[in-house]
Amino acid sequence: MKVSIAFRNIDPSDLIKSRVRTKLDKYDKMFPGVMEAKVTLLEDKFRYFVEVHLIGAKVNITAKDTHDDDLYAAIDLVMNKLDSRIRRLKGKSKDIERKPIATVALEGEI
């Protein structure tokens, strides 16, 4: 998966980048259709904003969240939202695959 991380009003550090990448690696294994992840990290005064876009062939998932004091907590909150959205999306796709196809047999005229 290609991961691009944008920092706004935050000093970029390797620790933050590695934390985001390790969290996103889990989603690459869970949902192999995802090809690209765009992460935006923003600090506005004392509030941290994190936004993640997962883009794939049939997938477009976005999650946003904020935290007042801690960037790492904001990252964790967004990853929890992505967890629930991916699990829900995988559940929907499994339900669609499991539905039996109804067949209609015509009697009489051929």
Average pLDDT: 83
Largest sheet geometry? 4 strands, mixed
Q: SS-based structural class? A: alpha+beta
Strands, total number = 4
CATH topology (fold) name: Double Stranded RNA Binding Domain
What does this structure look like?
The chain has 110 residues and is an alpha+beta fold. It has a single domain (2-98), classed as Double Stranded RNA Binding Domain. Helices cover 41% and strands 33% of the residues. The chain has 2 helices and 4 strands, in the order E-H-E-E-E-H. Strands 1-2-3-4 form a 4-stranded mixed β-sheet, covered by helices on one side. The relative contact order is 0.15.
SSE layout and pairing:
Blueprint: E1 2-8, H1 14-30, E2 34-44, E3 47-56, E4 60-67, H2 71-98
Parallel strand pairs: 1-2
Antiparallel strand pairs: 2-3, 3-4
Helix pairs in contact: 1-2
Question: What are the defining features of this structure?
Answer:
single chain, 110 residues, Double Stranded RNA Binding Domain, four-stranded mixed beta sheet, 2 helices, 4 strands, 41% helix, 33% strand
